[in-house]
């Protein structure tokens, strides 16, 4: 779990629940994690006693200052008689991580204290060939390898430092040297290295003392030297103040009318926007989650762009009025789309194709397979039309009409299953089965209708008719092949064994909400109502925690065989979206409001939303933060406010009519 990430789209620093720095991504969000998830330790020596903040001796409260990407952290050790208040941030436009540390003496006697800050860089994601040295040009410590430099400094200047070997033979690292309160020096070390700096403090009885600590990230020695000089010239406090003010202005730029929403929901809405920003690379990639702990159980991570997740997040940002961020996403999509008109499973932050497990070859049938999840292609076009429809930037979308929109739409028209008329088999959104899925079909309908809108926009009516016809045919085929009159609901899909034999997949799946969300069917259609009723009955967890599971018998990180699965934030919020879509009166919105409140109540104290929560304890499960969780909360909140405004406007018009 990553309780308090801070970043600026180029440098991302994340903390775990013990307030240890665990990930340092640079120069792309989610790519090149220069710690490999190993912790940067933070320790205190006082009166001959030493304790790392990660130990159980400390009580920790990890939050953010309101409406900012500046943390508000309080850690207290009653045994040591020390309380520390920290504010961490990454400068809004420079690649500088900055921390203010305020150390308080909880005892009624003057004391000496020493704070030790440790760095376990593994530059370029490996520990081989790094160098750490004390740099007389900057009077700072520098870690480097090839084109990656990290400079560490404090104000007042640190009193002691040490560089040394780590994770090599019997050498654990310089952090062990700090535990007696004394560092032995070491001006330079190469290979598998770490470093520690110590700041000495003199605390009056009940008094406190501040110091600042920063890490500059760059691609050359000269670059980090200039950044270090910049901090000194601006002063660390002024830098901290500027960054806090910047994010307050950023998150409030649209002056949203939150009507009667409770303060907790408004707070999480704004926090979600800020968290999304930390997970979005400046070159356009929207990363699913940057929490390297997942590698311990999966040998891979979530620090990738899935264009499906990205399209959902981009749509939420567009709804919230942050089009300057989403333009970069659509530009990246236009650059990385496959020549055949689809998107690969996932991508690295720099746009290169990432690791994947969708086979391109059927070893039994000895033929080619499409190694795709077609919803990823459809949703980009769907979201792009939503972007255009809101902002009407024709010069922007014109650039992608041929290279992205037509290319993807032509693929969707032709990628069809001949026997049913539905989209051909591909992998589902959960990436665990291949077939024809109701969710995928729904997104293709939405994507094709979006493409038809674009074709009409650019005066190509014959092309628009082709796309509209294909969408209509798929809707008809969905009614025929994917709706079960016996079960009175949509099937999850058709599970294929090869490309010739398939059987109905009757599993109730939260993703069936897509049948109405992308416009294939109306939310008030009996087919949709019956399906969503099944989701309520089968997937709402009968525990004190509640929430909606992904699907029946979901085995992914499942904690109880007696329950459908764990509660997922996105799935629970999809149910709220259904309540909003079908609402006919203001009273009908109450269930959706309850789900928004439920989400706020189950966030971490910092406001971070995980992927899942434990169905009986409510504790976060899997990665945190999950960008998709935050974007869904943003989108659902806006959907709620739009529907509420419609009802309020109707009531106002009725009132005006009565007066007249």
Number of strands: 29
Report the radius of gyration as a whole number of Å: 27 Å
Strand content: 15-25%
Count of individual domains: 3
How far the N terminus sits from the C terminus, by CA atoms, comes to: 59 Å
Low-confidence stretches: none
Count the DSSP helices. 17
Strand count, sense and barrel status of the largest sheet are:
9 strands, antiparallel
Query: What structural class do you assign from the helix and strand content?
Result: alpha+beta
Tell me briefly what this model is.
The protein has 660 residues and is α+β, with helices and mostly antiparallel strands.
Description:
The protein contains 17 helices and 29 strands. Helices cover 36% and strands 23% of the residues. The protein has a nine-stranded antiparallel β-sheet with strand order 7-8-9-10-18-14-13-12-16. Strands 6-5-11-17-15 form a five-stranded antiparallel β-sheet, with no helix packed on it. It is an alpha+beta fold and 660 residues long. The chain folds into three domains: 6-250, Distorted Sandwich (Beta-galactosidase, Chain A, domain 5); 255-282 and 540-652, no CATH class; 305-538, Glycosyltransferase, CATH 1.50.10.
Topology, please?
Elements (H helix, E strand, L loop, with lengths): L5 E2 L4 E4 L5 E8 L2 E3 L8 E5 L2 E4 L6 E6 L6 E7 L4 E9 L5 E10 L5 E9 L10 E6 L4 E6 L2 E8 L4 E6 L8 H4 L10 E4 L1 E11 L4 E11 L2 H14 L1 H16 L11 H16 L16 H4 L8 H14 L2 H14 L24 E2 L4 E2 L5 H18 L2 H5 L2 H14 L11 E2 L6 E4 H20 L3 H22 E2 L4 E2 L2 E5 L3 E5 L8 H4 L8 H14 L27 E2 H14 L7 H12 L10 E2 L6 E2 L5 H33 L1
Antiparallel strand pairs: 1-2, 2-3, 3-4, 5-6, 5-11, 7-8, 8-9, 9-10, 10-18, 11-17, 12-13, 12-16, 13-14, 14-18, 15-17, 19-20, 21-22, 22-25, 23-24, 25-26, 27-28, 28-29
């Amino acid at each position: 779990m990553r309780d308090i990430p801070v970043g600026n789209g180029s440098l991302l620093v994340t903390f775990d629940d013990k307030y240890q720095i665990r990930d340092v991504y640079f120069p792309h969000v989610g790519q090149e994690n220069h710690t490999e998830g190993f912790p940067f330790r933070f320790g205190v020596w006082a009166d001959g006693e030493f304790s790392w903040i990660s130990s159980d001796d400390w009580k920790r409260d990890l939050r953010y200052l309101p409406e900012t990407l500046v943390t508000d952290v309080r850690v207290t050790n009653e045994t040591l008689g020390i309380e520390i208040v920290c504010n961490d941030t990454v400068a809004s436009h420079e690649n500088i991580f900055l921390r203010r540390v305020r150390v308080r003496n909880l005892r009624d006697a003057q004391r000496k204290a020493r704070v030790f800050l440790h760095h376990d860089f593994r530059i370029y994601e490996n520990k081989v060939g790094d160098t750490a040295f004390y740099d007389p040009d900057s009077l700072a410590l520098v870690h480097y390898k090839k084109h990656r430099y990290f400079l560490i400094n404090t104000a007042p200047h640190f009193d002691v430092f040490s560089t040394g070997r780590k994770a090599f033979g019997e050498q654990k690292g310089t952090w062990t040297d700090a535990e007696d309160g004394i560092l032995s020096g070491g001006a330079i070390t190469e290979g598998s290295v770490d470093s520690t700096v110590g700041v000495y403090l003199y605390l009056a009885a009940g008094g406190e003392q501040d110091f600042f600590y920063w890490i500059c990230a760059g691609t050359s020695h000269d670059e980090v030297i200039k950044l270090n000089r910049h901090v000194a010239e601006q002063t660390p406090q002024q830098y901290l103040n500027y960054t806090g003010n910047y994010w307050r202005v950023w998150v409030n730029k649209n002056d949203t009318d939150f009507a009667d929403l409770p303060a907790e929901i408004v707070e999480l809405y704004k926090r979600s926007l800020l968290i999304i920003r930390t997970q979005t690379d400046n070159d356009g990639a929207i990363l699913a989650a940057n929490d390297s702990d997942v590698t311990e159980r999966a040998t891979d991570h979530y620090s990738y762009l899935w264009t499906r997740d990205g399209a959902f997040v981009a749509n939420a940002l567009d709804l919230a009025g942050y089009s300057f961020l989403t333009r970069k996403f659509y530009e990246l999509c236009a650059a990385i789309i496959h020549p055949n008109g689809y998107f690969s499973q996932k991508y690295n932050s720099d746009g290169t194709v990432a690791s994947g497990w969708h086979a391109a070859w059927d070893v039994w049938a000895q033929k080619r397979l499409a190694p795709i999840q077609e919803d990823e292609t459809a949703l980009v076009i769907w979201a792009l039309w939503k972007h255009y429809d809101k902002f009407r930037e024709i010069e922007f979308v014109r650039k992608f009409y041929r290279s992205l929109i037509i290319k993807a739409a032509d693929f969707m028209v032709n990628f069809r299953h001949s026997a049913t008329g539905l989209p051909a088999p591909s992998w589902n959104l959960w990436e665990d089965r291949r077939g024809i899925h109701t969710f995928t079909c729904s997104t293709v309908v939405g994507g094709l209708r979006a493409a038809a809108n674009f074709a009409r926009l650019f005066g190509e009516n014959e092309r628009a008719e082709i796309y509209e016809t294909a969408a209509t045919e798929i809707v008809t085929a969905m009614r025929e092949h994917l709706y079960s009159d016996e079960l009175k609901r949509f099937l999850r899909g058709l599970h294929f064994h090869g490309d010739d034999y398939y059987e109905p997949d009757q599993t109730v799946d939260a993703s069936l909400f897509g049948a109405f969300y992308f416009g294939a069917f109306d939310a008030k259609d009996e087919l949709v109502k019956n399906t969503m009723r099944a989701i309520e009955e089968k997937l709402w967890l009968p525990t004190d925690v509640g929430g909606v599971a992904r699907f029946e018998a979901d085995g992914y990180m499942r904690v109880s065989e007696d329950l459908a699965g764990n509660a997922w934030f996105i799935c629970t919020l999809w149910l709220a979206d259904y309540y909003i879509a079908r609402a006919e009166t203001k009273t009908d919105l109450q269930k959706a409001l309850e789900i928004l409140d439920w989400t706020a109540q189950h966030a971490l104290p910092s406001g971070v939303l995980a992927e899942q929560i434990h169905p009986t304890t409510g504790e976060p499960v899997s990665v945190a933060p999950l960008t998709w969780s935050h974007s869904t909360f943003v989108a659902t909140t806006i959907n709620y406010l739009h529907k509420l405004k419609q009802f309020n406007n109707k009531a106002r018009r009725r009132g005006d009519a009565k007066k007249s």
